[in-house]
Structures
1.
Amino acid sequence: MKMTLKHAAALLPLFAACYATAADDAGSKAAPKLPVVTVQAVTTEDSSGYATWVAMANEKFKAAGGPDHFTHVYEGIIAGEETGAVFAVRFADSAVTLAKDSAALMKLPERQEINQHLAAIRKLGPSIMLQAVHFEGGYDGEWILVTDAQVKDEAAYLKALGELRALFDSNGLKDIKINTYRVIAGRSNHTHEVVISAPSHERCAAMIDSEASTWMTDWLAGVASVRTVVHNGIYHEISK
């Protein structure tokens, strides 16, 4: 996620269009079918103010007939050089839909004023586009562990992630969701990105604690032959 979440500021706009909010109290998002996502890195010293203006744009866009919560905002929490970095993420069911939604957003009457406020507090960085190859959904305000990797055999890697799903389910981590994306544009140092979503900081920590367990160390050893980890980190959705 090194490049992805950095470039997730744009990608953060990436989660909104694809996430339909479920009706449960936990705020779980239903999993759409293999979405396309864009992530753009954003440099700002006012992440809260940035998230506020993005939220305003989301509201105006929804009122004009656009998707609910089109742009999501994430911040690096424990993410190496991406700690404190902000990302914008957008989801759609296809690249065509994402392009149409992005074009419609730019035509909003209020867009110029909102862009002026955004321009005063942020600079846009690199962006990337990803295609989901396995998608379970996420949570509003989620905490995520993102792993960027060079994958040698996608089919074998997805099979291994299916085994991880079963291990999570049998070890008290059924609420942890696994999402996997292939980088399709803007690729630099990784081919795939795995985003493991938790509904809270505590549940994300519980998932991370599981890495010390025998079942997880065995799984990590087994998957090492098909992937090389480039970067990982913990991020939090700060969308408003």
Note: The longest helix spans residues 47-63.
2.
Amino acid sequence: MKLKEKIVIITGASDGIGKEIALRLSKENVKLALISRNESKLKLVSDECIKNGALDSKIYPVDITNTSKLAEVSEKILSDYKHVDILINNAGIWQKLKPFYEIDEEVIDKVIDTNLKALIHVTRLFINSLLDRDEAAIINISSKSGVTVQPGQSVYSASKYGVRGFTDVLKVDLKDTNIKVAGIYQGGTNTKLFEKVGENVITDDFTDPKDLADVVAYMLKQPKNIWLHDVRIGR
């Protein structure tokens, strides 16, 4: 796919993996629709993307777990840009490591709502626009926890296994359309994901999110007859 002038939506774009994907794709002269809850951080990322070469970059502050507000934002994006070429579902939160019987109701709802339900709703809201394009792509950023069992991650893993299932069925449902679908299942990544829930995890030897962003750009830039359906990253 030739990325120049393509309209790209990225969720969770204010920091971490989402920020680095936005910065990397801006070098390809795309137009960006950046979604996150943190408006001030989002604005800083957007400004940097323009400096990097993005032809346009607009911000859309919203909590994606608020489905009605998310629908309003989707209408705004489609009003601003008229269509969408690429959707990168990246937004996600971490569940502090602990046995399932110690996890409270609020954490369960927040993790499932953010990591799985919101991702599905974002996809639902933009799928028709993507179907209208000659070529389009959906990349779901999941986790190693969506393919392997790891202790203390019951709810987080449930959300990420759910993303994997949704992604795999979406591939089949869209097989004969213009939309290419992929899931990325990365190991530990050096972001503030753990810090945000008070988890003390040493991330120095984890994957650099800039490298992960390079992988996303590589996937999208492949010729029309080549697509990486399932990418697993880590040691």
Note: Helices lie at 16-26, 39-52, 67-81, 105-131, 154-173, 209-220.
3.
Amino acid sequence: MRNLIPQYIVTAIFVLLIVSNSCISQSKEPETTITVTTKNAVKEISGDMLGLSYETKDILSGDDSSYYFRPDNKALLQMIKTIGVENIRIGGNSVDAANIPIPKAEDIDSFFRFAKAANVKVIYSFRLKDGDPEAAKSAAAIIYENYKDLVESFAIGNEPFYYEDDDELIAKWQSIYDAILEVFPDAVFSGPDQNCKG
């Protein structure tokens, strides 16, 4: 399904993405003028373009053992539906943070039940740095057995520039990839989020 969006909205989103990019130099640059015209014809864009990205820690239960992503969080469900979100990515820096627990079965279950209620697809990230192939395999098995139809793709790790040794990175990534495929043989993988190093 495709949506028609005026060109000036697409242009405005593009400009916001450029301005918010963390790789932009903080040095003083000459002023630039950007003019947005509203007279251009509309362009077709993918109906599933709009998505949100959350940290892995956001699917963990809180201090009171409750979940933010749960199928009865009506306010969040309404927000997702109102703004037209079609997919949610779970990952970010906390996927590889040693001080953040790897999501357990109940964490994964609550999140995916929310995703089903919200009618969104999921890009789900597995820990790479100090990650455990067996833990990834267990999580993938839960997702495959219960929520396979909600998965857009999997990612392994986040911001791999932080690895100094490419061979170590590739070997670690491959071991987790292979473990996931053992239980989710038709899994689709997307690249991890990336930053600018230095």
Note: The chain is about 35% helix and 15% strand.
